[in-house]
Amino acid sequence: MKKYNFTQANVHSSFMTLTPAPKAILNSLCKEFLSVNVSAILYLMNYEKYGRSTASAQYFLQLAGYLGIPVIAWNADNSGLERRASQSSLQLQLAPSLEHQTAAMLSILERYKWHQFSIVTSQIAGHDDFIQAVRERITEMQDRFKFTILNAVLYTKASDLVTLVNSESRVMLLYCTREEAIHILNHARELKITGENYVWVAAQSVIATGTPPTQFPVGMLGVHFDTSSTSLVTEITTAIKVYAYGVEDFVNDPRNANLSLNTKLSCEGAGLGDSRWETGDRFYKYLRNVSVENDMGKPNVEFTADGVLKAAELKIMNLRPGNNKQMMVWEEIGVWKSWEGEGLDIKDIVWPGNSHTPPQGVPEKFHLKITFLEEPPYVQLAPPDPVTVKCNMNRGVLCRVAREQDVAEMDQFSAHRNSSFYQCCSGFCIDLLEKFAEELGFTYELVRVEDGKWGTFENGRWNGLVADLINRKTDMVMTSLMINSEREGVVDFTVPFMETGIAIAVAKRTGIISPTAFLEPFDTASWMLVGVVAIQAATFTIFLFEWLSPAGFDMKVKVATANRCLEGVLSADGLVVLQVTPAANHRFSLFRTYWLVWAVLFQAAVHVDSPRGFTSKFMTNMWAMFAVVFLAIYTANLAAFMITREEFHEFTGVDDSRLSKPYSHKPMFKFGTTPYSHTDSTIKRYFVEMHAYMRNFNRTSVQEGIAAVNSGELDAFIYDGTVLDYLVAQDEDCRLLTVGSWYAKTGYGLAFSRNSKYVQMFNKRLLDFRENGDLERLRRYWMTGTCKPGKQEHKTSDPLALEQFLSAFLLLMSGVLLAAILLFFEHIYFKYIRVKCAKTDQGGCCALLSLVSQSMGKSLTFRGAVFEAQDILRHHRCKDPICDTNLWKTRHELDLTRLRVLQLERSLDAHGIKPPARHINAPHAGVLMHHRDMTRNHVFTNEFGSRCYRPDEREVQEMETVL
Fold first, then answer.
1. Same domain, 207 and 350
2. Does 487 appear as a known binding residue?
3. Phi, psi of 839 (to 5 degrees)
4. pLDDT above 70 covers what percent of the chain?
5. Measured between alpha carbons, how far is 471 from 93 in angstroms, rounded to an integer?
């Protein structure tokens, strides 16, 4: 273990050779310190002048930091040294720091529940560090005690203290030199902020040593530590112990075996020594981690990471009269110990003004006369309890509604029992007033304005609430008084506590269904597209496809040959006559196509003629699909338009032409407001015609106006937006709503007389209430109701636009294109494929593979066509009972005729006349049939008793040949 000498001479020189001149400080370091290879400097000073010595100390410690030499300091003038030096130098501070002093000062405030205070500093070194230390300490204590810094005043001249006069602060923390404190407190005395209700708490730099100046007020408090020479010598021993323990720890660490505590520094330049001791940073860490035994009952001397004492002790001083009444002395009344939980032990204190009780720390209570005018939900009136003559918790506070001279003639108890003199005021503004009274500590008298007016400029003078402020009859107006430029010109307003504007209230009424409601599901463009395009396109495409289809009706002129049918008649000579008789004049015409399209579109249960061709049938089915989509959309949306809807007057705002120019609309709307209000004066200024028209419809109160709108006497009522929102929300039937946007947006504010000293006080509290959410909570509590406030949306079904109905048209167009393609393939089939398939004379295979229709498969061969015709004849039945009756009648007449013919033949035969041979009389057909043997089974009797012709196999073949 190496041995290091540290003599008393080295210690002496380290704290006695410091001189104010920077050059002398540098020379002292180079000659007296570096020449003897010092490994640490003990800097101890009890000088408290806080002048050039402070700057010299800072310069000295900064140089030591550049050289890398640790410093163990104890100096009474440690203003800001810890914060600045700890960043660039290797310093350990044995004296209590600014952090310790601010913690002790705030402990005093916490003990006496002084939540709010101000800070007064001079331009002393470290004044910024003092304020920052206070803020950091407040942050650490916010969980158990909430502080508020009202002002931070930097004193340079007497006028700087005026801020404290207008402030609510009654507790001041003072940090400056003793000489500067004399000037500050002298000016404070002149401004009357050192009296009985004001507490000044001073730092160590203010107390110092010696007799207190006479300018210091009685009852002043402060924090102090001993700076006498005896205390200084004691701290030298502690500093040497710290150094010795640090050296021991450094040497005993094996990691430092190759390191030396000899600095070998030189100021002469390169070659003579290093300019910075690199081992100094390492050695400083060992010094900072030491733990030195302290006096009995005190914790060991230890340091934080910044080189500040972990545990410090400060004395709490109180300025009080001495034995000589004209002399003041600082007397120790307690001790603050940082290592204890409470940390503060105080004995009896002489308080400011020689009082025996501590000040409240807040402004003394003052009394305000507050004028109001009722308007729910801001201020509403209710009678007090008839038994207790008091207001219940939910009814607010007692307020006077009668004139002062009327109440003066009665005793207070009788006046309070009379509801015409006193009532209970409650509402948003009353709750807000209670919070103000609690926070600011004042009492008040709540009085209703005598003339019951808000305050407008009429006939060259102000009335209502504004007049009371101008005439100094009241201190403050607390109600829903709107801020405008005219009022701001004569009174002072706080910042707005609620935003508002001019709104319109209307009533909802049940509307009548429009006669054209069935057309409203679609807009005009959609109806035009359906009627002009869709129907026409479907009609012409179906008709065209039927005309062009080879399997469709023959649309040409040869109707007589095309529309005929075979008819068999039994002649008198026993021959069956087959004749082709003209059928009904049937053709699939364009008008019948229109009838089909309309019937399918609206699903009408009427008789329609269906097309024959496959493509036209397919097109008809596509139109039916279009109709399904169309009707589904139409019927779904029609229900919304056929339901009776609630209607109301949808005004866009006060500047709506139907209101601003009332005579331009017929019939004219009936609307009004309350006279002598902000709304009335605003309309009078900007809408002269409107203001003159609505005079006949004005109401004396908002409640009357709302009732008139509900009953239908008024179409609309114009007033403050937030008030109307509240009344709309309170409507039991939910028939009211506000419409349009707010006009002339402004806010409600607290009004004071000109240059009132209370404006800033209330302004600050309002901002605090807004920041912490108190205003929002009050708004939610008072502005809610049964119905949802604010403008309710006018919910109706909008007509469907074209793009919403486009899918149905795309479906129809796709069907048209597909039908055209099928028509093309149908022609290819009949022209080429059908001819080849017909040669086989078999319809089964081709009919099976045919994708067109069953009739097309049957038409591949003659035999198939004949079988189809034979089947139709065989299974023919009438679907109509009248048709069956006529058919039976005709067949009956035919049987009678045949019997008559037989009788005539027998008569001729009896007279020897042979009847002529029977033949088929078919002049129109041009087809002769052979004589038929009636004994053969070719004739059968139907259900009507008539005989019908049934061809045999041979005759079928003959018919095929003819066909």
1. yes
2. yes
3. -65, -30
4. 76
5. 63
The structure tokens listed for 886 are 């006529």
903 three-class SS: helix
CA distances to 12, 511, 638, 645, 735 from 642, in Å: 107, 11, 6, 9, 21
Q: Which residues are within 8 A (CB) of 851 and not within 5 positions of it... i.e. 6 or more apart? A: none
Domain assignment of residue 50, yes or no:
yes
What gap in Å lies between CA 73 and CA 91, rounded to an integer? 7
Q: What is the pLDDT of residues 883-927, one digit of tens each?
A: 777 777 787 888 888 888 888 888 888 887 776 665 444 333 333
CATH number of the domain at 452, please.
3.40.190.10
Concatenated DSSP letters of 50-75: -SHHHHHHHHHHHHHHHHT--EEEEE
Q: Tell me, what's the pLDDT at 276?
A: 82
Residue 403 annotated as lining a ligand binding site: no
Is 443 marked within a binding site? no
Helix 774-783 × helix 759-771 angle, to 10°: 80
Q: Is residue 448 part of a domain?
A: yes
Q: Residues 756, 492: contact at Cβ < 8 Å? A: yes
Tokens of 159: 């006028």
Q: Is residue 958 a part of any domain in this protein? A: no
Task: Extract the tokens encoding 729.
Answer: 């929300």
239 and 338 part of one domain: no
pLDDT at 516 over 80: no
Give the pLDDT mean for 347-367.
82
Both 330 and 455 in one domain: the answer is: no
Q: Which two tokens stand for residue 699?
A: 């109401």
Assigned domain for 42 exists? yes
Q: Tell me the Ramachandran region of residue 210: left when phi exceeds 0, alpha when psi lies from -120 to 50, beta otherwise.
A: left
Element (H, E) at 485: helix 485-488
How far, rounded to the nearest angstrom, does the alpha carbon of residue 926 sit from its chain's CA centroid? 93
Whether residues 117 and 142 fall in one domain: yes
pLDDT at 574 over 60: no
Summarised one tens digit per residue, pLDDT across range 202-258 is 998 898 877 888 889 999 999 998 888 888 888 888 999 999 999 999 999 999 888
Rounded Cα distance, 527 and 534, in Å: 10
Contacts of 531 (CB under 8 A, 6+ apart): none
Check whether residue 132 and residue 269 sit in a common domain: no
Closest alpha carbon to 315 in 578, 104, 45, 563: 104
Residue span of the structural domain in which 693 resides: 504-511+646-748
How far lies 118's CA from each of 152, 159, 192, in Å? 6, 16, 16
List the CATH number of the domain containing 26. 3.40.50.2300
Specify whether the CB–CB gap between 650 and 660 falls below 8 A.
Answer: no
Cβ neighbours for 342, distance < 8 A, ≥ 6 positions apart? none
Partners of 741 in beta bridges: none
Distance CA 274, CA 267 (A): 9
**Of 578, 538, 582, 576, which is closest to residue 819 (Cα–Cα)?**
538
The kind and range of the H/E element at 42 are: strand 41-45
Same domain, 262 and 317: no
- Same domain assignment for residues 212 and 109: yes
Q: Could you give the CA distance from residue 241 to residue 72 in angstroms, rounded to a whole number? A: 11
User: What is the token pair recorded at 389?
Assistant: 């003559």
Q: Give the Cα separation of 367 and 474 in Å (integer).
A: 11
d(CA 244, CA 870) in angstroms, rounded, equals: 137
Q: CA 759, CA 763: separation in Å to the nearest integer?
A: 6
Q: What is the pLDDT of residue 369?
A: 94
User: In terms of C-beta density within 10 A (0-12 exposed, 13-18 middle, 19 or more buried), how is residue 161 classed?
Assistant: buried
Distance CA 333, CA 104 (A): 13
| Selected residue with higher pLDDT from 942 and 612 | 612
The pair of structure tokens assigned to 531 is 């009627």
748, 767, 785: which is the final residue of a domain? Answer: 748
Q: For residue 753, give both structure tokens.
A: 């007389």
Looking at the 3D structure of the chain, how many domains does it have?
Answer: 4
Q: Are residues 108 and 202 in the same domain?
A: yes
Phi, psi dihedral angles at 143 (to 5 degrees): -70, -30
Query: How far is the C-alpha of 327 from the C-alpha of 745, rounded, in Å?
Result: 64
